[in-house]
Write a structure and sequence with these properties.
The chain is an alpha+beta fold and 149 residues long. The protein has one domain: Mago nashi protein (2-Layer Sandwich), CATH 3.30.1560. It has a 6-stranded antiparallel beta sheet, covered by helices on one side. The N terminus is likely disordered.
């Protein structure tokens, strides 16, 4: 599978870094903190019954903050993620609240299913399905604790 993990801020298809093709379904979470140049990115994709996850942290100022993981994800974990995605009404074009701020964390969540592509962004996600998606993907990537905004 071609990696769908950007190494820079090009986190959306519109930004020039597409989600991988040749998969049935793919989702990518990237988290951008206002004053931290360390960007975690998590990509999860399904092709048939095979579900895989790739994650990467790219630390621009601190090379010791590098982190890369590739692993298989269980069907139960995939179904838990899909349930949260459905709760957000992601594929119906439902966007989280439009809260904005100058400080904090902005999370970008992208999805590709068949020929459909959608992306949402949320500043400092509050409790609810969107924040749970972020927390689950970070946990699956071994990055638990990064969702403490």
């Amino acid at each position: 599978m071609e990696s769908g993990l950007p190494s820079t801020y090009g986190y959306t298809e519109a930004g020039g870094h597409p989600l991988p093709g040749g998969v049935d379904e793919a989702y990518r979470l990237s988290i951008h903190a206002s004053f931290d140049l360390t960007i975690p990115v998590v990509l999860i994709s399904r092709t048939g019954n095979e579900i895989s996850l790739e994650s990467k942290i790219h630390g621009y100022l601190d090379p010791s903050s590098q982190h890369e993981v590739t692993r298989v994800v269980s069907k139960e974990q995939w179904l838990a993620l899909r349930d949260l995605i459905e709760q957000t009404r992601f594929w119906e074009g439902e966007k989280p609240s439009e809260r904005l701020g100058l400080d904090g964390v902005t999370s970008y969540f992208e999805g590709r299913r068949g020929g459909a592509y959608f992306v949402v962004q949320q500043w400092c996600p509050e409790n609810g399905p969107f924040k749970k998606i972020c927390a689950l993907l970070l946990e699956l990537a071994g990055l638990k604790g990064l969702d403490s905004w």
